[in-house]
Amino acid sequence: MKPYAFLSLVLVVQTLVCTTKTFAAIPQTKEKPRKYYVSVNGSDGNTGSISAPFQTINIALAHAKPGDQVLVRGGTYYQEVKFPRSGEPGKTISLQGYPGEKPIIDGSRIKVSGWLSLVTISNVSYVTIDGFDICNLSSSAVNTDPQGIAINGKGQHISVKNCHIYNIKSHATLEQGRSAHAILVIGSSPTPISHLLITGCTVNDTQTGTSENVTLAGNIEGFIFSHNLVYDTENIGVIVAGGDGINPRGAVESNYARNGVISDNVFHHNTMTRTPETWGPDRFGAISIYVCGGANTLIERNIVYESDRGIGLVSESNIYPTRTTTVRNNLVYNCYRAGIYMGDYLNYTIAGTKNCSILNNTLFQNNRVAGAFGEIEGELRLTEHCEGNVIKYNRVYAGPKDLLVHKYTLTGSQNIIDHNSYFSIGQPQWIWNSTNGSPITDFQTWKKTSGQDAHSSLKKVSSKFYSNLSRKWKRSLPSKI
């Protein structure tokens, strides 16, 4: 090594040593998460401590930084709530009811103009709302949409927990745009809403018109809807949908809800019969669990009863089929019309139901009223454009004048129906490729005509057997989700 090269190396090492000694690391103190408190008797001039709480929820949220909690004392808050910022990974901003108390966000003093929600979560991530009653927002005005909770834009790791959402109502007529939502989630950004959790919630006493109680539509990638109770509602319980209607500017390749789970929920009395003055006496169009242009959804261990229809894998779109969805281990009983419904509405759209699986479900004495054409819709109903679907290992208990399986039209291909157990207390019936034709009443004729159910079984049972089953299920209903 040349002398000047060695000297340069020594100088560099000495410089590094000196630098290390001169600029030693200064210990950093992490700011601890804070708790802010809100009370109806508080003041927005306070500090937000438990002894000096704020009065307005939004003021507390404005102070909250990632990792902070806003704890709201019991009482009624006539306020609109909006999350102003995001949390961070491991540092969620949490809006919570104070332990053991019930805060109520009440919309009875708010005039609804356009689309308006009591709680808005827009373009934020890592936030939670937990333990609130959200209620009493209604409108009679034309083209308004009162909402309990609205989540839109983009965002990730958003949680809605243990909330009770009720009395969210539109009193407008259908011609005036009757619409409302208990929870409305629209992925309306090129970046999806992801890691969405809705759990432990109750939705009841709503009038949603042509809309749904819980809507998951547009660019949503990954969601869980579990351990909720949805009952006494005017229309659809929960929908997983394409966004071509509600988010028409979304990119076709991502504008639909997907990769989600709907599990361990109870739905009952989701029916248009609650408001016959709006729908007329013979409308039974509500579906409790509805995938409409969504994809890759797992629907399991849900209980649906005494609703218009149980579970629907139907598309109202010409762009998005309902596809790659699995319905398994659900109980659907005593609904007005079909237990499980697949395919497009007749003569309406063409996207269809594709590559879905209906496995190990129990259907019991649905179809208590006739369908729109005077027909029996069927415990298992297949309308148009069903392709590549599998229906296996289900237990289907038909009522006295019920249809076990009803396939309506000649469209559709490569569907497999097999290994099902059929039960009947009357004359068993099936219809194949006819909207309202003469039913098939012989099991072997059914197998030959349909080319299906080669390994399925049929058993005639007594009314007492059915009564015992019905009592068993009623006793097994959870008192609390």
Automatic annotation (TrEMBL):
<dbReference type="GO" id="GO:0005576">
    <property type="term" value="C:extracellular region"/>
</dbReference>
<dbReference type="InterPro" id="IPR039448">
    <property type="entry name" value="Beta_helix"/>
</dbReference>
<dbReference type="InterPro" id="IPR052052">
    <property type="entry name" value="Polysaccharide_Lyase_9"/>
</dbReference>
<dbReference type="InterPro" id="IPR011050">
    <property type="entry name" value="Pectin_lyase_fold/virulence"/>
</dbReference>
<keyword id="KW-0964">Secreted</keyword>
<keyword id="KW-0732">Signal</keyword>
<feature type="signal peptide">
    <location>
        <begin position="1"/>
        <end position="24"/>
    </location>
</feature>
<dbReference type="InterPro" id="IPR012334">
    <property type="entry name" value="Pectin_lyas_fold"/>
</dbReference>
<feature type="domain" description="Right handed beta helix">
    <location>
        <begin position="250"/>
        <end position="367"/>
    </location>
</feature>
<protein>
    <recommendedName>
        <fullName>Right handed beta helix domain-containing protein</fullName>
    </recommendedName>
</protein>
<dbReference type="GO" id="GO:0016837">
    <property type="term" value="F:carbon-oxygen lyase activity, acting on polysaccharides"/>
</dbReference>
<dbReference type="Pfam" id="PF13229">
    <property type="entry name" value="Beta_helix"/>
</dbReference>
<dbReference type="InterPro" id="IPR006626">
    <property type="entry name" value="PbH1"/>
</dbReference>
